[in-house]
Specification:
The complex is a heterodimer of chains A (313) and B (306). Chain A has 313 residues and is mostly helical. Helix content of chain A is 72%, strand content 0%. About 2% of the residues of chain B have low confidence. Classes of the chains: A mainly alpha (313), B mainly alpha (306). At the A-B interface, helix 4, helix 6, helix 7, helix 8 and helix 9 of A face helix 1, helix 2, strand 2, helix 4 and helix 5 of B.
C-alpha cells in the first residue's frame, strides 16, 4: 500500500494513496474488525469447551469423549453412579453449600469490621495489619494451605481442631476475609469523611453513626464482597483439598479432581460440574440483581454492577 | 459566628479510637492466629525433627534447638550431585513464564476491544468475558479433558483433516501450558478490562485529534496508561500458577511435567513433610519481593483514590 504512494506522482501523493486503499480503510474511525474477530475467537475458545462439557453430562453412554444421545442418566437415571444415587457425589454437593454458607457468614462480618477499624484508626499497628491482610490475598494458596495443614496436624493447641470441616472453614475464612476487607476499604475511601462528620455534628454517637449512616452507605460493597466470598468458596480447591480428611467433608471440586485424576471419571462428573456451574451462575445472577437493587437511584449502570460482583471494581 | 460554630462542632467530632480498635480486633486476632502463626509453624516443622516411631514430623518451636537436617536435604536435592529438584524448579519457571506471557498476549486484545470498541454491545461482551470467572476451575479442566481424549472431538477434527490423532493427555508440556493459560486467563482479563475501561477516553481522542494514527495512539497513549493493570494482572496470575499442582496432574499426570507445587504437595503426608515445609518457605522467600511490590501498589492506588 505504501509502495503505491511512493510511486505515485509527486504532485498528488494523497491521490495515489487514496486510490490504492479500499474505501473502508480510509476511514480513520473505522470499526476494528480484526480485533473484534480476535475477541470472538477468544470467547468461543473460552466458552465452547464448557458448553460441550455440559452436553456430555446428558450423555446416554458412559463416554466423556463421544456423544451418544440425550438422557438424565447421570443426574438420577443411573441407580449406582448418578449424582442422585451415589452418596459420595450428593454429599459433596451439600458439603460445598455448607462450606460456602459458613465461610460467608463468618468472613464477611469480620472483614467489614476489620476494614472500618483499620481504615479509621491511624497508626503503625493498623497499617501493618493492613499489610498482612493484603499479603494474605496474594500469597500462593498452596503455600498457605500447607502452613495450615501443619497447624491443624501438628501444632499443640490448634492440633485439636484436626483436619475436616472445621479446619476447612477456618482456612477458607482466612483465605477469603481479604475480599470484604479490601472492597469495603475501597468504598470507605470513596465515601470520604463528610457523612460521618455531618452525623456527628447532628448529635449522633459513634455507634449511631455507624448503624444509621455508614452501614447503609456500605451495603452494596458488603453485598458484593459476600457474593465474591460465597462463589469463591464454591470454586476453591487447594485449601479444601489439603484440609479435608474423609469422604464426609469432601466438597465438589475435590471430588471432581480426585475421581478424574484416579481415572474413574465419567459423565457423572460432568453432571456434578454442571450442578456446580448452575450454582455459581445462580449466585452471580442473584448478586447482579441484588447489587442493582441496592444501588438504584445512584448512577451505577449494569456494566459497573457486573464488574463489582466479579471483584474488578 | 457561623465559622466559629462550625469550628467548635468539628472539634467536638473526635471519635474515640477505642471504637475502631474494637472493630478491627477480631480480624487482627484472626490473622495472627490463622495467618502469621501458621507460617511460624511451617518453619518449626521444617527445622524440627522426625518422630521415628510414627514416621511423622514433629514441630520444634524453640529456635535454639532447631536442626538443619531438612534444610541440608533440600539443599542437596536442589544443588547436590543427584539434584532432582532443580530441573523441576526450572521447569516450573519456564511453564509459568510461557503460560503467563501467552495469557497476556491473548487477554490484552480481547479486553482492549471490549473496553474501547464494543459500543452498544458492551454489556453482552462483558457478560461473555466475565462468564469463565464464575465457572469453577475444575469444570474448566474437565471440559478440556473431555475434548483432548484420544478419541475426543479435537482428535476427530484433526484426523478428519489428516493430521493424525496425538495423545494430548500423555504427559506433554504444551498441554500443561495450554491448561494453565486456559485456567488463569479469566482472572487476568478481568483486571485488564477494569484497568483499560478506567482510562479516560478523552486522552485517547486527543491523541487521535492531534493526528496520531490508531497504532501510534495505542503505543503512545493507551499502552503507557495500561502498564499498571498489566503488572497487577501478571502478578495475580503468576503467583497462583507457581503454586499450581493440579493442572498438570489432571492434564498430564506424568513425572516429566511435574512442577514445584507437586513436589511440595507430594511430601505432605509423608515422613519428608519437613522438607516440603522448607521448600515452601524457599518459594515464599523468592516470591516475597513481588508480593510486597503488589501490596505497596495496592496501598498507593487506594491512597491516590483518596
Amino acid at each position: 500500500m505504501t509502495s503505491t504512494a511512493v510511486s505515485a506522482p509527486v504532485t498528488a501523493p494523497a491521490e495515489g494513496a487514496r486510490s490504492a486503499r479500499p474505501r473502508f480503510l480510509r476511514n480513520p474511525w473505522r470499526h476494528p474488525w480484526l480485533l473484534e474477530g480476535f475477541t470472538w475467537l477468544y470467547l468461543i475458545w473460552s466458552l465452547a469447551p464448557i458448553a460441550i462439557a455440559v452436553l456430555f453430562s446428558f450423555n446416554r453412554g458412559k463416554s466423556q469423549a463421544s456423544y451418544q444421545g440425550l438422557s438424565w442418566r447421570w443426574y438420577w437415571g443411573d441407580r449406582v453412579n448418578s449424582i442422585w444415587h451415589n452418596p459420595q457425589l450428593h454429599s459433596a454437593m451439600f458439603e460445598t453449600l455448607k462450606l460456602s454458607c459458613y465461610t460467608t457468614l463468618i468472613a464477611v462480618p469480620i472483614g467489614v469490621a476489620f476494614a472500618l477499624g483499620i481504615n479509621r484508626w491511624r497508626g503503625v499497628l493498623p497499617s501493618s495489619f493492613n499489610f498482612i491482610m493484603i499479603l494474605s490475598f496474594v500469597v500462593p494458596e498452596l503455600i498457605f494451605g500447607v502452613a495450615l495443614f501443619f497447624v491443624f496436624t501438628s501444632m499443640p493447641g490448634l492440633r485439636a481442631v484436626g483436619l475436616g470441616n472445621w479446619a476447612e472453614v477456618l482456612g477458607l475464612v482466612t483465605w477469603n476475609v481479604s475480599w470484604p476487607a479490601i472492597i469495603v476499604q475501597g468504598r470507605l475511601v470513596g465515601i470520604g469523611k463528610q457523612y460521618e462528620e455531618a452525623s456527628a455534628d447532628l448529635g449522633c454517637t459513634q455507634f449511631q453513626t455507624m448503624r444509621r449512616v455508614m452501614l447503609p452507605l456500605l451495603w452494596p460493597a458488603i453485598f458484593a464482597s459476600a457474593i465474591l466470598v460465597f462463589s469463591g468458596v464454591i470454586d476453591d480447591f487447594v485449601i479444601v483439598d489439603l484440609l479435608s480428611s474423609n469422604a464426609t467433608n469432601t466438597p465438589m471440586s475435590v471430588i471432581i479432581y480426585s475421581t478424574q485424576h484416579g481415572g474413574n471419571g465419567g459423565p457423572a462428573l460432568n453432571a456434578l460440574a454442571t450442578v456446580m456451574l448452575l450454582l455459581s451462575f445462580v449466585v452471580a445472577g442473584l448478586g447482579y440483581l441484588g447489587y442493582r437493587l441496592m444501588t438504584r437511584g445512584q448512577r451505577i449502570g449494569g456494566q459497573q454492577a457486573l464488574t463489582a460482583i466479579a471483584g474488578a471494581d | 459566628m457561623a465559622t466559629q460554630a462550625a469550628r467548635r462542632s468539628r472539634k467536638s467530632y473526635q471519635p474515640s479510637r477505642w471504637f475502631w480498635v474494637l472493630l478491627a480486633a477480631p480480624g487482627m486476632v484472626w490473622l495472627v492466629v490463622l495467618f502469621v502463626i501458621p507460617f511460624y509453624a511451617m518453619l518449626a516443622i521444617g527445622e524440627g525433627k522426625l518422630d521415628r516411631q510414627t514416621e511423622s514430623p514433629v514441630a520444634v518451636f524453640d529456635p535454639f534447638t532447631w536442626s538443619s537436617a531438612n534444610l541440608s536435604n533440600v539443599w542437596h536435592d536442589l544443588f547436590g550431585s543427584a539434584a532432582f529438584a532443580l530441573p523441576i524448579a526450572w521447569r516450573t519457571i519456564w511453564y509459568v513464564a510461557a503460560a503467563s506471557l501467552l495469557s497476556l498476549v491473548i487477554a490484552y486484545p480481547a479486553a482492549y476491544f471490549v473496553a474501547r470498541f464494543a459500543g452498544r454491545r458492551k454489556g453482552i461482551f462483558l457478560v461473555l468475558l466475565i462468564a469463565p470467572f464464575w465457572i469453577s476451575y475444575m469444570m474448566r479442566m474437565l471440559a478440556w479433558i473431555d475434548l483432548l481424549q484420544t478419541n475426543g472431538y479435537i482428535n476427530k477434527v484433526l484426523s478428519f483433516v489428516g493430521l493424525g490423532s496425538p495423545d494430548w493427555l500423555g504427559g506433554h508440556w504444551y498441554t500443561v501450558v495450554l491448561g494453565l493459560v486456559y485456567g488463569y486467563i479469566p482472572y487476568l482479563i478481568l483486571v485488564l478490562y477494569a484497568g483499560l475501561d478506567r482510562i479516560d477516553q478523552s486522552l485517547i481522542e486527543a491523541g487521535r485529534d492531534l493526528g496520531l494514527s490508531r497504532v501510534r495512539t495505542f503505543a503512545r497513549v493507551t499502552l503507557p496508561l495500561s502498564r499498571q493493570p498489566i503488572l497487577t494482572g501478571m502478578l495475580i496470575t503468576v503467583l497462583p500458577m507457581l503454586g499450581d499442582y493440579y493442572t498438570n496432574q489432571l492434564l498430564s499426570g506424568a513425572p516429566n511435567t511435574s512442577m514445584i507445587g507437586n513436589l511440595i504437595e507430594g511430601q505432605l503426608s509423608t515422613p519428608s513433610a519437613g522438607q516440603g515445609a522448607i521448600l515452601s518457605l524457599l518459594v515464599l522467600l523468592v516470591l516475597l519481593a513481588p508480593m510486597i511490590f503488589y501490596v505497596v501498589q495496592t496501598n498507593r492506588a487506594s491512597q491516590a483514590a483518596a
